[in-house]
Amino acid sequence: MEKFIVEKAIQDIYPDDFAWCYGCGRLNKDGHHLRTGWEEEKTVTIFTPDSKYMGIPGFLYGGILASLMDCHGTGSASLALHRKNGHEIGDGAEPPRFVTASLNVEFLKPTPQHVPLKAVGTVEEIHPKKWKVDAEIYAEDTLCAKGTVVLVVMPSTFLKNDG
Ligand SMILES: CCCCCCCC(=O)SCCNC(=O)CCNC(=O)[C@H](O)C(C)(C)COP(=O)(O)OP(=O)(O)OC[C@H]1O[C@@H](n2cnc3c(N)ncnc32)[C@H](O)[C@@H]1OP(=O)(O)O
């Protein structure tokens, strides 16, 4: 796999109040800090899980692949609606925020530890408030998992009520 770094990620511009997700929140010091950006018309997230995310020695725990798929989905949908709204990362506009409505993962091959994983997404609009991301996760050049994530624009039920 070519060396790839996500230079501009949608998670970098989420407002602080929404930057705490365990998977992709930049402000969650214990989290994975997943970052998702464009690679031409596809979305990409790169992640090398820590050694502790072991299933069988030498191979990854499947739940961590699901986590990658999950946040790759929310980030991809946010990128796509942001672009549809006429914005790109860095133009100062606040991006839309999505939550996961469903997550389907197929584990195709044993996934080795200690190599960078690359999630590649194809984003499709179902409705302006509902998007689908078909994702593939590669370890080096091997397709190890694929899945589909459905995302919905974050409803007001997620707004924190301090009262
Ligand atoms: C925010 C920063 C990044 C954070 C990343 C976090 C990643 C996560 O882990 S999120 C946490 C896990 N996910 C959750 O907790 C979600 C919990 N579930 C829920 O809140 C709800 O079930 C939710 C929001 C997913 C779906 O709600 P539901 O009311 O069933 O929505 P749904 O019927 O699918 O429609 C969605 C919207 O599209 C609209 N819509 C209209 N036409 C259509 C259509 N043809 N098809 C689909 N939707 C349509 C619906 O009317 C609705 O809009 P509105 O709310 O204005 O009526």
Structural summary, described in words:
By secondary structure, the chain is an alpha+beta fold. It has a single domain, classed as Roll (Thiol Ester Dehydrase, Chain A). The protein is 14% helix and 33% strand. It contains 1 helix and 6 strands, in the order E-E-H-E-E-E-E. The chain has one helix at residues 62-84, and strands at 36-39, 42-47, 98-107, 117-127, 130-139, 142-153. It has a 6-stranded antiparallel β-sheet with strand order 1-2-4-5-6-3, with helices on one face. Strand 4 and strand 5 form a beta hairpin. The longest helix has 23 residues, at 62-84. The termini are far apart.
Set down the secondary structure blueprint.
Elements: E1 36-39, E2 42-47, H1 62-84, E3 98-107, E4 117-127, E5 130-139, E6 142-153
Antiparallel strand pairs: 1-2, 2-4, 3-6, 4-5, 5-6
The structure holds octanoyl-coenzyme A (CO8).
Octanoyl-coenzyme A binds at residues 14, 18, 21, 70, 74, 97, 99-101, 126-127, 129-130, 152, 154-155, 157.
